[in-house]
Design goal:
Layout (H helix, E strand, L loop, with lengths): L5 E2 L8 E3 L5 E3 L2 E2 L5 E3 L8 E2 L7 E4 L4 E3 L5 E5 L2 E3 L5 E6 L2 H7 L1 E3 L4 E3 L8 E6 L6 E3 L4 E9 L27
C-alpha cells in the first residue's frame, strides 16, 4: 500500500496508517500485521467500527435461522487468518445482538490459536424463549480481538503464597 494510505476500517474511520517506510501504525503504536485469506471476495474485511475499538466486526458468510430457546448454528465468516506466534484471537459476542435479540456466542470467547488456519466460524445461540432469529449473509455477528498471550510454565509447589482474596471464589465479594 502506498505511503500514507489508511487500512482496516470503514470509510471515514482511520485505524492503521502505513508510512513511506512501510511501517504500519495505529495512533502512534505499531500495528500487528496478520495475514488474512479472504474465502468470500464479496464480504468486507473485518474492520473496527470506531477509532480505539478493540474488536473488529466479523460477518456471516451465509444465513441461518436460530430457533427460540437455545437454537444454535455454526456460522462461517469467509475468512482464514494466520495469527502470529505469541498472540491469539478471541471471538466475542456483539452486545447489541445480545441486548436486542438475545443472540450471543457459545464457547465465548472463542479461542483462535496461532497455529489455526481454517475458516473462522462463530457458534451463535438464540436465548430468546419465543422469537426465532434469522442471520442474513453479511450480518455483523461477532467481534474478533487479537491479543498478546504469554507462554506459561507451571512450577509445582506444595503450597501457594497467601493473598488478600485467598480462597474466596464464586460470589465471595457479595452481591
Amino acid at each position: 500500500m502506498p505511503g500514507g494510505q489508511v487500512r482496516g476500517g470503514p470509510v471515514g474511520v482511520a485505524r492503521a496508517v502505513e508510512d513511506e517506510s512501510g511501517e504500519v501504525t495505529d495512533g502512534g503504536n505499531a500495528a500487528l500485521r496478520v495475514p488474512l485469506r479472504r474465502l468470500d471476495p464479496d464480504l468486507p474485511l473485518p474492520s473496527y467500527a470506531r477509532p480505539g475499538d478493540a474488536g473488529m466486526d466479523l460477518r456471516a458468510r451465509c444465513g441461518a435461522v436460530l430457533a427460540p430457546g437455545g437454537g444454535r448454528a455454526l456460522v462461517p465468516t469467509g475468512l482464514a487468518v494466520a495469527i502470529p506466534e505469541g498472540y491469539a484471537g478471541f471471538v466475542q459476542p456483539r452486545s447489541g445482538l445480545a441486548l436486542r435479540h438475545g443472540v450471543t456466542c457459545l464457547n465465548t470467547p472463542g479461542l483462535i490459536d496461532a497455529g489455526y488456519r481454517d475458516e473462522l466460524c462463530v457458534l451463535l445461540v438464540n436465548t430468546d424463549r419465543a422469537v426465532p432469529y434469522e442471520v442474513h449473509r453479511g450480518d455483523r455477528i461477532a467481534q474478533l480481538v487479537v491479543q498478546q498471550v504469554a507462554c506459561v510454565v507451571f512450577d509445582e509447589v506444595t503450597e501457594l503464597s497467601e493473598s488478600e482474596r485467598g480462597m474466596g471464589g464464586f460470589g465471595s465479594t457479595g452481591r
